[in-house]
Write a structure and sequence with these properties.
- It is built from three helices and eight strands.
- It is of the alpha+beta class and 130 residues long.
- It has one domain: Protein Transport Mog1p, Chain A (3-Layer(aba) Sandwich).
- It starts with a strand and ends in a 5-residue tail after the last helix.
C-alpha cells in the first residue's frame, strides 16, 4: 500500500510533510492507516499525540492502554472502535517517542484481531535514528 502525504493535500499552501511535522495515510478496500509525527515537546511520554490521532466523536478506545519499552522507545498502544467507516469498525492506535520526535499510528480494520499484528509489523519496520 502506498502512503499519501495528507499534509500537502489538506494544507492551504500545499505544504508537504517535513522532518519536523507530518501526516501520511494509506488505504485499501479493507484497511486504512495513518501516521502522524511532530517534534517532541520535551517529554518522553507520547500519550499526547495518541490523544491527537484518536478522533473525538469517531474513535473510542477499548480497554486500558498498554505502555511498553520497545527498542528503547516508549510505546503506548490501545485498541479502538470507530464509526468513521461502517465497513472498518475496529482498529488500534499507538504512539511512541524516537529521539527528538513523537509518532502516532492508527489503523481501521474489519476485525479487531488483525490490528495488533499490523502494528507489530509497522513498528518492526520503523527505524529510530537518534
Amino acid at each position: 500500500m502506498a502512503f499519501y502525504d495528507v499534509s500537502a493535500a489538506t494544507s492551504n499552501q500545499g505544504t508537504p510533510s517535513t522532518y519536523q511535522t507530518g501526516l501520511m495515510a494509506s488505504y485499501s478496500g479493507g484497511l486504512v492507516l495513518q501516521l502522524l509525527w511532530q517534534f517532541s515537546p520535551g517529554t518522553a511520554d507520547p500519550s499526547f499525540l495518541l490523544n491527537l490521532i484518536i478522533e473525538d466523536g469517531a474513535d473510542t478506545t477499548v480497554g486500558a492502554q498498554e505502555v511498553k519499552l520497545i527498542r528503547d522507545m516508549n510505546v503506548v498502544y490501545t485498541p479502538i472502535t470507530t464509526i468513521a467507516t461502517p465497513i472498518l469498525p475496529f482498529g488500534a492506535a499507538a504512539a511512541w517517542t524516537c529521539g527528538d520526535r513523537v509518532f502516532a499510528w492508527k489503523v481501521y480494520t474489519a476485525d479487531q484481531a488483525s490490528a495488533q499484528g499490523l502494528f507489530e509489523s509497522a513498528l518492526a519496520r520503523f527505524t529510530c535514528k537518534r
